[in-house]
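Researcher: Next entry: Colicin transporter (Paraburkholderia largidicola).
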Amino acid sequence: MLADAQENAAAASSAVSTSDAASGVSAANDFDARQKTLDTRTAENNYRYGVAQHNCYSKFFVNHCLNSAREDMRVVAADIRKEQLALDDEKRVEHARQRDEQAAIKRAQYEADAPARAAQDARNAQAYDDKQRQHELSQAQRNAEAPQRAANEQAFQQKQQQHAIDQAQRGISPSQAAANQKAYDAKQADFQRKLDEAHQQAAQKAQERTEKQQRFQQKQSEAAQHKADVEERQKEAAAKAKQKQEEQAKQQQQLEQQQKQQQQQQQQQQ
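Model: Predicted structure:
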């Protein structure tokens, strides 16, 4: 079921992304075409004004001609400016819509991935619990074997002592006994060295296990904190996006009202 949910979410996200991309490209192309038209009209208006200025100097009423040409240029420029402002507003609204849709897609993808993250967290917790139980079992086994190891060590020492007594009873010479004792001491020293090394290795491994456990707990804590931080940032981002969208909608409504008022004023003037 988890795989199906993720697959459905991915398919929906892909479909929305494709639709948004198509609409975004169409809107961008329309904006570019309209902007190009406005730029062309601006260039033509400036050109006509330049030609009119040039022609005015060949007429008798030069100043009157220049003023008339300037007024004609301003009328056309004002109309172009009005359309430019409307186009800029539409661009801002479209860009805001695209940002909101992208944010919605990301939120949907994050929510769709939530079961997978929860399952992974559960697997990590289970693995940690298994390691803890295995460590406890190993420790219990070592503690249970400790008396047997002590008994084996004591039996070895008794065996070595009995061997020395047997040699004395067989009439071994003092020099030979000294050599035997030296060899025995060397074996005992070697045995003690190996025993100390085994103890050191066991202590080192126990320390490594403790450190690994501490690092794992630290990572789990950091992961939980990171998750909480991400969720908090997402909530803040969503709140800001909603507030911005409301402000843009309010600005758009005010702009439309202003445009209606301007149209009514123009109609009244006509």
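Model: Note for the record: Residues 26-145 form one domain.
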